[in-house]
Here is the input.
Amino acid sequence: MIHFVIPLAFGLATLLPVIVALYFLKLRREEHIVSSTYLWQELVRDTAANAPWQRLRFNWLMLLQLLILISMIFALARPFTWTTTASGGHLILVMDTSASMSATDVAPNRLSAAADQARRLVRNLASDVPLTLIIAGSQVEVILSESTDRAQLNRTLSDLKAENGEADMTTALELAAAIAGRDPEAQIIVLSDGGGRLPEWLASSALVRYLPVGTSGENQAISALSLDATPAGESPSAFVRVTNYGSQDVKRRLTLYTNGILVAARDLALPAGESIALTLADLPAGTTVIEAKLDGNDPLLLDDQAWAVLPLLTGAQIQIVGPGNRFLELGLALLPGVQVATLSLEDYEATWAQVEQDAAPAMDANWLTIFDTVLPDDNHYPPGALLFTGPLRSTKFFSVTGSIATIALAPANTSDPLLAYVDLRDVLVQRAARVPIPDWGRSVIVTDGAGEDSGAPMLIVGGTEERRLAVLTFDLRDSDLPLRVAYPLLLSNLLAYLAPGAAGPLPITLSPGQPLAIPLPPHAEAAIVTRPDGTTVRLPAAQSAGQDPVFSATGAPGVYEIAMESDGEIWPTGQVAVNLFNSSESDVAPRQSLVLTSSGGYTVTAEHPTREEWWQKLAWLVLALLITEWLVQYRNNLAQLFAPSGPSKRVLFTAAPERRQ
Amino acid sequence: MSTLREHPLLEPTFLAKLDRLSLVSRRMHRGQIQGERRSPNKGASVEFSDFRTYTHGDDFRQIDWNAYARLERLFVKLFVAEEDLTIHILLDASQSMAWGEPDKWHFARRLAAALGYIALAGLDRVTAVALTDASHKATDRFRPHRGKRQALAWLDWLAGLQPSGDLDPDTALRDYRATTRQPGPLLVISDLLGPGWESGLQALAGGRFDVTLLHLLAPQEVSPVLEGDFHLIDSENGAAVEITADYDLLQRYRQRLADWQGHLQQVCASIDARYIFLQTTTPLEDLVLAYLRHYDVVR
Here is the structure.
């Protein structure tokens, strides 16, 4: 639509009839004597005698003069259109590819609309203006750098896909500003719906323009979902929150599935801008995954589905069998994700008796049982790892051949990962059992000093085909080890070895694209991630200690299964749910301004397209018409100027009759 | 009183070149006295023409005695007559001729002078008329003169002419035909601007005259240099025409001129006359010595 800056200029249109009137008026003509008017008379019929007006005839000059005046009037009225065309010597396009750009309020989606807008911008740009394309997704990427290859840009724009996470607009804009800093004529254009974190201060003197994409903000989302299990083993419960980010009240149906089975459906009346939270108790026992869905359509489908996992495998279940050991309980309590239960040997045996009566309980690999100075019946060892402290007699796993008194400790191998950061100096043990190294084990800590007891194993670790085992040959109460810094470190290392699945806590939920650091115990070889679509990724353990493998391909929402590979075995270690749960992405209403403050001293709240004026083009048109009018006016002279022959030749060849014989 | 050598119309060097030329007559015409042109009459030249049976009263000096010896009958030998030829020059002296750059009138008089001089030098009889309005002054006619000695009189007569008035060519040409008995080549030098020329020329046709139409225009008439709005005034009758000289009008003018010339050529062809178009920019020497020779007007 064309608008005019100075519509009053159209008043000059009153001059148009004046020009026409001048052609109506009979002109005062110059008198010119010719030899004869004989040849002219037939040519000129318009000889109305003495009338001040003459019949208006078609005249190219009149037409051109009218066109010139019309063009001038339009030029003076300064017509303009609102446009989003770009200009400048270097165009830096920042394309938002965050989750909200996949909203379908503009067909086919916002990202495609933004790509089309970018194409339109570039189409109006001179072909030699370089382009830089920055993709602002969860990672910022410069796809094109100062390229003039428009075809490549088109291909790149066609290949763009919206991510499922939040855009890192801060980095993208700072990068754009840094690139623009090299070129004073650069212009930054942000094609976005305004979601994502913005830098509070943008150090750029370049013109920053924001072209919003999207029309509607009527979106509802599952903004929270969690699954909890009570320690007492009761039925798990779920918490879900649904938020209406739109400006109108809506009704949506929420359905919940546990392990793929529909367990609940609720019709929710969602007031505009508000949330509804629900708690669903008494979910089926054994529920480890819950999935929530919002039925129906809204612009963004990504946040209409969410998952939550039970943090079942995130900690080690440890039972201490013995008379009660304050040092052990305290030391284990310091470790994260560890659940400790203490019971006496009698209770243990009683439980075992009940177990023999019923079906064997499902005890998984994370179970660690510590026999603290007590030993059960040789047939009553539970599955899972075993730790013996201060054994008083031989068992089927090891033999006790005597005792050792007043000893200092020393590492058997200083590079043993079980002794990482463990300082055994000045640790004394009053009394310990003498345990020869069994076939399955190796000594980690030995006695220090000279004498026949030198080098006797104090801590033996190892594994059989069924389980991992460790034997601490002394009672912790007979040592000052629990008072040393080395104690929690040794306990942690030992626990990591015996219960590798409990090596560290995994997050329960992640945002799409958020990298997942998978903590692995020192002996683990790799982490294995199974994506929601069933594909698996093997991540080798880091070479240096303290660095966990990182899984970054968490773009797709859903449940990711995490496992650990150790000694050729796969140990499931947990599940992670990836959900959008991002209010800035779910709130898809396009922002009408990007509040950026640039160093140029102006605040960019740019949204509006710029005003493109057309008067320059009209001025060129006026000039072209003036030249045309001049050419038409003097075409006769010009024709003579470029006449191919002189008059004498014309005599000989233009009117010469054939010679008569 | 100027002499032939210093005459303003023709230069002596040009006159010397003209001495070698003669006017071409496409037909034989009867002359008045013996001359150098072949006549349809039988005469006393040395060129044999025919035999005729002797009749009483014939000059028996002309009897062919050899034929009598063979045939025993009397035959008289006839010979081709050589007589003089009357060249008619009709010069348009209307006011429109006094226009153009170079001047049509000056050019026309010089052309007439050259052609008349060629005729006089070839022992032909020259008569001429200045075609003006209907006043028919005695000075408008150059009575028949013969011989090179009359060249000065011829040039002086031309030099004394003044263009004036509005010509009615139809009447003027009909009058000339009615008042002239001597046949012969007739040269019309005119710009032909005006109505009546076609009918006048057709009146001249009829066997007595061998008409050559020399159509003379100034370059400004061939391609007018006009730009703008003009009140055109006819130099002959003062008639006015208002024009807006733009490209289109001038294009149409040129087209009209070409059509008109084509029409005149058709008229000339219909009366067995020659049409030759001339412009005043052509040098007279080139015109006479080359151009008119090319068209067999002179030889």
Q: What stands out?
A: The radius of gyration of chain A is 44 Å.
